[in-house]
Amino acid sequence: MRLGIYGGSFSPIHNGHLLLAESCREQCGLNEVWFLPAASNPLKQDVELASDAHRTAMVELAIAGNHAFKVSPIELERGGLSYTVDTLREVRQIVPHAELFLLIGGDSFASLFHWHKIEEICELATICTVGRPGFDLNDWGRLPEVLNEDQMTQIKQHFVEMPLIDLSSTEIRRRVTEGRSIRYMVPRSVEKYIETQHVFRNQPTHV
Questions:
Q1: Which residues contact 101 (CB under 8 A, 6 or more apart)?
Q2: Cβ atoms of 77 and 89 closer than 8 Å
């Protein structure tokens, strides 16, 4: 099985996340994509997230009807900082015969040099990168200092194309706190969940 692993805060999940996952599924020939809400992102510890239960529920609503998409609670159950290398090790134990593909956006690509044990991550999974507005996938920064030529080539061979949609969970949270529309930014089911469950209503607008 070719298995895509897509981790993130998903606070909330939005249409850009879903399009990224579907683009990777199609272009990389993935059998399944697992969405893994993070317990605590090491690079986003200053962001106030919705509860684990709310984030999981929103992902489940967003992916309903797509049989290739699943939600996995392994990072939430493990707790603490959600280091990708730990997640991939755990997934490897759960499905030892699967070929793993790590799905990331251009913003994550720009920070790969700072990821914990990025060399081992590249050994455990193939990184599939999707461009995002404002991030140049030709700018490798300091990555060549920590990755070998084969790893660099593998990453280059798995750049995934999709329409550039400038959506962010931060902006969606801000719009909710300001009482503004998020229609067409998130699936309708997620929009209604946020409305009825009053998610993000009491958060400060700067997070």
A1: 2, 3, 4, 5, 24, 28, 30, 125, 126, 127, 128, 158
A2: no
Residue-level pLDDT at 137? 87
Given a contact cutoff of 8 angstroms between Cβ atoms, the answer to whether 37 and 52 are in contact is yes
- Between CA 126 and CA 117 the distance in angstroms is 14
Name the nearest CA neighbour of 38 among 15, 17, 68, 66: 17
Measured between alpha carbons, how far is 151 from 159 in angstroms, rounded to an integer? 13
Tens digit of pLDDT for each residue in 112-140? 999 999 999 999 999 999 988 788 888 99
Residue 120, number of CB atoms within 10 A of its CB: 14
What CATH superfamily classification does 2-197 receive?
A: HUPs (3.40.50.620)
| Nearest of 37, 61, 57, 67 to residue 189 by alpha carbon | 61
Domain regions of the chain by residue span: 2-197
Contact 167, 184 (CB under 8 A): no
Cβ-based neighbours of 141, under 8 Å, separated by 6 or more: 110, 113
